[in-house]
Amino acid sequence: MSNSRGQASVTWRARPDAVWRSILAHGFILAAVPLPPCAVALVEGAYELAVALGIPLALCILAGILGRFQRYPDDLRAIEAVCTLAALLLIACAMPLAAFMSLGLSFTDAVFEAVSGVTSTGLSMVGGSLDWPLSAHVLRAWLQWTGGFAIAVAGAALILGPSKAARAMGNAGMTESDIMTSTRQQARSMLIAYVAITVVGIVLLIPLMPAPWEALVIALAAVSTGGFSPRPDSLASYSGLAQGVTIALCISTSFSLMTYVYLRRRGPRAAVERTNVRAMLSVMTAGAAVSTFALWQRGLTAEEIGAGVVNFLSGFSTAGFSAAPVSAAPVILALLMAAMMIGGGTGSTAGGLKIDRLLLAFQMLRLTLIRMRAPDRAVTRLLDHGQKVEIDRITSVAAVALCYSISLMVGWMIFLLAGLDPLGSLFDMVSALSTVGLSSGLTDADLAPHLKYVLVVAMLLGRLEFLALIAALSPITWFGR
């Protein structure tokens, strides 16, 4: 206990003024959230929605202007960078609330929809939105696109430049770095890759979709691994080819975005060796094969098996699209939950625990077994890609896994106390914590309000990988020594 107190005595607290100035500096970046849907609303004459989006847009621009007159803290501490990122995400979630309420949603449902959008989850309170104006569909898809990458990862470094503050923000937002480039250059390279994949996706989907605007919103949601669809049956109404292209887009950004940066700079070999491509493809292929076998054993048709595999790949990429209702069969739900828990790769837009952490955990298991057989004087080390794994990374993996497990157990127990189906409740909690968006059917407008807020908290925790939100809301962060 005394040792813990001693370690706590040398920690920094977050300075509110530094965090405030950092938030102001990101005003123009935050303005990118309501700007496009607001512009579309004005063009199509949806003036109520335009006003609801215009007010937060004006506030963001005002914050950006004020930020230009504030001296940005060059000594931004890591904890302050984490708090800033958490605050930016929460502010982004608050901005579209009035817009969703203008579309007829209650306050609770508007909160749910906004958080699901910004966290790129895809769980929804909207049963059918085809009669919504185009700007409303653009709003939902754009929230996912910006939440999936631009704000949480690239926005900070793009506006601040390669200073100490930018590096602190970059380290807080980027989990996989290229030491050969500055934070700002890295962010720009990743953003270019993200935009390029989005443009390619839109071009590919336009001839496959009933309308060009559906291609736009589906591509934005797919690239962000978000999962919002303008249709109540998600992807089921679209052709098999359209479903395939959509899932391919989801998978493309469930890899680390640094894959595409390495691919352009150093070629395919470096892209494969220095990122999680090989592991992702191996686990994805094995999971799809097991899923196919499980579906075939149930006597389903080829079309039903294909839809089930699409659901599995969507869950593994944490996109949340579905080609058919999620099967109630326990084995199928278990496979999907495993896929959602694993999630995509570190440095991607996907959620989940991340496959990189899973692989590191297996390396730790392997090392433990080796040490049980090794002589006392033998030197054994935990290695990843030939490099020694630092203790900070091991601690982080254990902390995230613990937070995920505790959050899942607490949330699941709350659902069980409400008398809901145990397996379905567990599935939807995993979906929310992993920011996926698939549902067993429990998550809809009829869900009890307190359970909706449980899922809201789960989505926020999952998107910020637990530690950031816990640190930002912890009193000791602000009032410690």
Order of helices and strands: HHHHHHHHHHHHHHHHHHHEEHHHHH
Q: Order of strands in the sheet with the most strands?
A: 1-2
Gyration radius, in Å: 22 Å
Helix content: 55-70%
Largest sheet: 2 strands, antiparallel
Give the overall form: globular
Could you say which structural class the secondary elements and strand pairing correspond to?
mainly alpha
Strand content: under 5%
Low-confidence stretches: 154-181
Instruction: Work out the number of β strands.
Output: 2
Number of helices: 24
Essential attributes:
about 475 residues; mainly alpha; Cat_transpt; Trk system potassium uptake protein TrkH
Describe what you observe in this structure:
The radius of gyration is 22 Å and the shape is globular. The two termini are 17 Å apart. Strands 1-2 form a two-stranded antiparallel sheet. It contains 24 helices and 2 strands. The protein is mainly α. It is a multi-pass membrane protein. Its main location: membrane. One of its GO terms (cellular component) is plasma membrane. GO terms for molecular function: monoatomic cation transmembrane transporter activity.
How would the blueprint of this fold be written?
Elements: H1 2-8, H2 16-25, H3 27-31, H4 35-44, H5 47-68, H6 78-94, H7 97-102, H8 107-118, H9 134-160, H10 164-173, H11 183-205, H12 212-223, H13 240-252, H14 258-266, H15 268-273, H16 277-297, H17 302-316, H18 330-342, H19 355-373, E1 383-384, E2 387-388, H20 391-417, H21 422-433, H22 449-463, H23 467-473, H24 475-479
Antiparallel strand pairs: 1-2
